[in-house]
Amino acid sequence: MPELKAGDAFPEGVTFSYIPYTPEISDVTVCGRPQNYDVSKNLADKKVVIVAIPGAFTPTCSSAHLPSYIANIDKLKAKGVDHVIFIAHNDAFVMSGWGKVNGVKDDSILFMSDPNVAFSSQIGWAGPERANRYAIVVDHGKVIYAAKEVDPGIALTGAEAVLARL
């Protein structure tokens, strides 16, 4: 499959793994159970931003990328975004823990695993073991924005860049 671009339909059969946040597992030392999230099905009737990162707890991801979305979640919601989904090669436990230590306590930002970087590889935006840094906005199953960072940083994939495209 070629890289996704605006106007493309979001691919069928995309599944991520995640642990939904609940108050019962809000403590970072408590784990929930991973479950599959049928991305293709769930994006059919929502507006969602998918943000791929090289890894949870990595420098740029933790100091800039995720904070940009936490700081702008209300602006994204005002533009009709139902969820922001952060994906990485990390398993669902690590992704859930990353969300917890960053104080995300609802489903406005979801933290999911792209096992074996399967989806990122499918669209050609992965290295040998990790996803490239990218953002895709999907509106009711249709891609309206897709960008991959070429240079270090979040110029094309941070919340401010995505907001400018909505």
Automatic annotation (TrEMBL):
CDD domains: PRX5_like (cd03013). The keyword Oxidoreductase applies. GO terms for biological process: cell redox homeostasis; cellular response to oxidative stress; hydrogen peroxide catabolic process; response to metal ion. InterPro entries: PRX5-like, Redoxin, Thioredoxin-like_sf, Thioredoxin_domain. Residues 1-166 form the Thioredoxin domain. One of its GO terms (molecular function) is thioredoxin peroxidase activity. GO terms for cellular component: mitochondrion; peroxisome. Keywords: Antioxidant, Oxidoreductase, Peroxidase, Redox-active center. The active site is at 61 (cysteine sulfenic acid (-soh) intermediate). Pfam families: Redoxin. Coiled coil: none annotated. Signal peptide: none annotated. The keyword Oxidoreductase applies. Thiol-specific peroxidase that catalyzes the reduction of hydrogen peroxide and organic hydroperoxides to water and alcohols, respectively. Plays a role in cell protection against oxidative stress by detoxifying peroxides. Belongs to the peroxiredoxin family. Prx5 subfamily. This is Thioredoxin domain-containing protein. It comes from Pseudallescheria apiosperma (Scedosporium apiospermum).
